[in-house]
Design brief:
Layout lengths: L2 E9 L3 H12 L4 E4 L11 E4 L1 H10 L2 H5 L7 E6 L5 E5 L6 E4 H9 L7 E2 L4 E10 L2 E8 L4 E9 L6 H6 L5 E13 L10 E5 L5 E6 L4 E8 L8 H11 L5 H8 L7 E7 L2 H5 L4 E2 L2 E3 L13
Parallel strand pairs: 1-2, 1-10, 2-7, 4-12, 10-17
Antiparallel strand pairs: 3-6, 4-5, 8-9, 9-10, 11-14, 11-15, 12-13, 13-14, 16-17
Helix pairs in contact: 1-4
GO molecular function: FAD binding; monooxygenase activity
Organism: Salix viminalis
Keywords: Monooxygenase, Oxidoreductase
């Protein structure tokens, strides 16, 4: 068995895990980030960042890498497809910006030393060893037999966090809705306004497309559908067939989907009181990001 010692171990190289590692680096603390995948995960395709997120990225010293590539969105519209009513939405002067998830992750990863992220590192078990005098050491056991001792362990391993389960946090529950997310590409340019266009109905369905640049949109659909599985082509076809009541402008964006980016997933969350009264830490082991509080999109 290979044994190692680290000051801080972070489980998960998603947005929360990398941001935490960058924040620690800025105050002089080195962290080792363990990621089960073979590379940076880009599921979700893109995301929309509001002003509070940009304040955090400013503090981490990475916002300038993204603002020069993504123009702010200053307005949008919400159309009720049952009534035809259209509500115009104006954002603050700080505005919001959509970004490719991969670009955000790479901007964070570039701030870290090359040996910070260890890919293909699958967590098998966690234990806490008492060291005397009230001190303890966290021990992370990987599936390849490696055991890593750490002064601090932070679980940033997503909705179904192994670290959260070890802490005893209640399992996330299904919100009753699911989401399809993807990028759409118009090689010759889409020639549409640089605005968010959202469409809702009275049954709780919500769809939108958000321009990332002159050629790409980030689009999504949230609905009560729980069985949208299969290959990307099948997911695209189901959206076009089952939700044909949405405007043609939205369906055309779906037709231009980059199939390599399509994902479907149930929207999970953890009841707020389960977080407030839960075990968010035991000694030197804690969680952050979705591992602590998985959020449905409107809570973003």
């Amino acid at each position: 068995m290979k044994r190692e010692m680290e000051d801080v171990v972070i489980v998960g190289a998603g947005i929360a895990g990398l941001a935490t590692a960058v924040a620690l680096k800025r105050v002089g603390v080195r962290a080792l980030v363990l990621e089960r995948s073979q590379g940076i995960r880009t599921t979700g395709a893109a995301l929309t960042l509001f002003p509070n997120a940009w304040l955090a990225l400013d503090a981490l010293g990475v916002s300038h890498k993204l603002t020069r590539s993504y123009d702010p969105l200053v307005k949008g519209s919400v159309t009720n497809i049952n009534t035809g009513d259209v509500q115009q939405v104006l954002f603050s002067e700080q505005a919001i910006r959509p970004v490719h998830r991969k670009a955000l992750l790479e901007a964070l990863a570039e701030e870290l030393p090359t040996d910070t992220i260890r890919f293909s590192s699958k967590l098998a078990a966690i234990e806490s060893q008492e060291q005397g005098g009230g001190a303890s050491i966290a021990v992370v056991h990987l599936e390849d037999g490696t055991a890593i001792k750490s002064k601090v362990l932070i679980g940033c391993d997503g909705v179904h966090s192994v670290v959260a389960r070890w802490l005893g946090l209640a399992e996330p529950v299904h919100s009753g809705r699911s989401a399809v997310r993807s990028l759409a590409v118009f090689p010759q340019g889409h020639r549409l306004k640089h605005e968010i266009q959202m469409f809702v109905d009275q049954q709780g369905k919500r769809a939108a497309f958000i321009p990332l640049n002159d050629r790409e949109f980030y689009w999504f659909l949230t609905c009560k559908e729980e069985n949208m599985t299969g290959e990307p082509e099948q997911i695209q076809r189901e959206v076009l067939e089952k939700y044909a009541e949405f405007p043609s402008i939205y369906l055309d964006v779906v037709r231009h989907a980059d199939l390599s980016t399509i994902s479907w997933a149930p929207l999970m969350y953890r009841h707020p009181w389960r977080i407030i009264f839960g075990n968010l830490n035991k000694g030197n082991i804690t969680v952050a990001g979705d591992a602590m509080h998985p959020m449905t999109p409107e809570l973003g």
